[in-house]
Inverse folding.
């Protein structure tokens, strides 16, 4: 039976990417050696890293002044890394608190400076993107989480803040087009639309870096990594390679604009059913809904056992909601085919028809 | 033709490990899903992480009070992480400078406290493990690099320092037995004897942690990761899984003591030839020689082209020395069969016989 993988991350990747990745673990580029047993300084792997960086720049249409790195530590280390590279000693910055990961980013940044939370939806269990005050004068940047995986909310576009932006785009990078010009740093863990767990992408403007007055630990200094072409130390070879394969797949399938169209169609399908079917209700406010993660619940909890049986028997996997929200969460990243969303919608209709 | 992979790291892994790893990228545990597209919170992956941690503890015979984590950032982030977890604000520590990686560890630790270099072999291009002074009174720990991959030197045993030890064991962990009791923290990038690039193992005594008076960034706080069973954030799924497969292979092949026997036999073979053959000389002093990386050069450089042709045509790969040392480097990690060392020795003899 075909499995419909709605996992929130690590998540579905294109079948062709998985096949190529498995083949490279056996034999890479016909070298007679595995991808994971060759030197990262070999020309074969250097070419992987260079293509992954260049393709990121191309697919995201990044300005020439931007650099791209593939590092380790996930967005969880990125919370601290992004702040320590930009926040001057004794400086201040503005943060939007739109979910669990935003709150974690705020916690790490507070170790480094004066952090102003300019908007929060915590009191309503993060069911919306909050209205925000303007960043106070003197803020070095505004930080926000573009998509909130757990709560199923997403910024509908780029905030207009009047200060440079820093964004954690872990769960919607490469899912829609955007203009990177207003950003100083964009960071994103790979394990949603980009690749497997184990690497985090940083895209950043080189110019504003190195001006904090701090001496940074080398691994946290984006300028150090940039000066070494993302090879300051041994990179996470396999995650970077699978990321490259996924980026090639995005390009071959029409680029980010085409991904966006497909993602909008999938989101339209599931949200229409949530709104139409009296047995379901959404968690996120309509105008904050995410195209990546749709959060919803039954209006009558007594039907849970039956609904779970229906979607399980349809081959649907990873639909259980995060414990902070409950209910269900359909994660619909780039690689999820619309047929999987159709299957889910069929089970929702089947539940309704049973009466 | 069989390839003899002498790469210094990432390096050779057991063929059975590579086969199992490739299979899991296609379908993991018969789930119908790839290892890299399932949730890290799924019971299938939680079991991987738990077994990898438990097997590390068993194979290294770690004391009960020790904890084991598989994190990201490599030893390069470990230089800073190990120091920030143990060095009190305004504190001091002793470091041995035995090579490039030691020097990098010292640089990062100096950001955090008063660092005493108690011994250095820098002036002789790190051709030996230096004689060391006792750590000054008040030193929180002595840090050293157990094996110096680039220069081919290795501590012959555990230093007697009179203070707790911290060691970067990236390039000889799981290659020989040792008593972990004198250590506060052991850390090791996976990409030598343990697995692929992309994860770093920390083994540490829980008791001395959390006493620095600092508030640590969460990702750098080993106690935070320990409290979450090494799943504070999304772990590097594939590198951890391949590490587990390699640990299982070590256990199935007699454990660390058996690895040590094999490694000693391989080292004996290559060093005997270096000492016997008038065309070659070693870089490292005899009593500092590494069982992992043998560094050597031709006594007559004019024979380089011919020697390179000989070993290349024998299927030998990764033998070129690091630019800091020149010449050749034979890295002989656990998974390298003695037949590969025999092949190398044959090419050295063939060169001699050509006269």
């Amino acid at each position: 039976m075909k499995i419909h993988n709605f996992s929130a991350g690590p998540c579905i990747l294109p079948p062709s990417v998985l096949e190529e990745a498995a083949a490279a673990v056996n034999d890479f580029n016909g070298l007679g050696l595995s991808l994971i047993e060759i030197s990262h300084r070999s020309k074969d792997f250097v070419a992987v890293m260079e293509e992954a960086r260049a393709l990121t720049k191309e697919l995201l249409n990044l300005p020439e002044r931007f650099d791209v790195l593939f590092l380790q530590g996930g967005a969880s280390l990125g919370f601290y890394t992004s702040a320590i590279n930009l926040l001057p000693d004794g400086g201040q910055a503005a943060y939007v608190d739109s979910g669990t990961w935003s709150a974690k980013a705020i916690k790490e940044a507070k170790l480094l400076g004066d952090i102003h939370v300019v908007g929060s939806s915590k009191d309503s269990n993060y069911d919306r993107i909050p209205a925000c005050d303007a960043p106070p004068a003197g803020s070095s940047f505004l930080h926000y989480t573009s998509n909130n995986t757990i709560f199923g909310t997403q910024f509908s576009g780029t905030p207009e803040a009047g200060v440079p932006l820093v964004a954690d785009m872990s769960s919607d990078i490469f899912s829609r087009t955007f203009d990177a010009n207003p950003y100083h740093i964009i960071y994103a863990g790979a394990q949603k639309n980009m690749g497997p767990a184990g690497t985090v992408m940083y895209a950043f403007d080189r110019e504003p870096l190195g001006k904090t007055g701090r001496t940074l630990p080398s691994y946290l200094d984006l300028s150090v990594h940039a000066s070494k072409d993302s090879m300051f130390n041994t990179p996470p070879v396999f995650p970077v390679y699978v990321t490259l394969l996924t980026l090639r797949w995005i390009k071959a399938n029409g680029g980010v604009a085409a991904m966006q169209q497909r993602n909008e169609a999938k989101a339209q399908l599931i949200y229409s059913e949530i709104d139409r079917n009296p047995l379901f209700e959404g968690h996120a406010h309509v105008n904050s809904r995410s195209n990546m993660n749709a959060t919803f619940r039954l209006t009558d909890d007594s039907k849970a056992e039956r609904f779970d049986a229906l979607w399980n028997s349809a081959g649907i996997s990873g639909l259980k909601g995060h414990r902070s929200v409950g209910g269900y969460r359909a994660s619909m990243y780039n690689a999820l085919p619309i047929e999987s969303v159709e299957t889910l919608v069929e089970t929702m209709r089947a539940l309704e028809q049973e009466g």
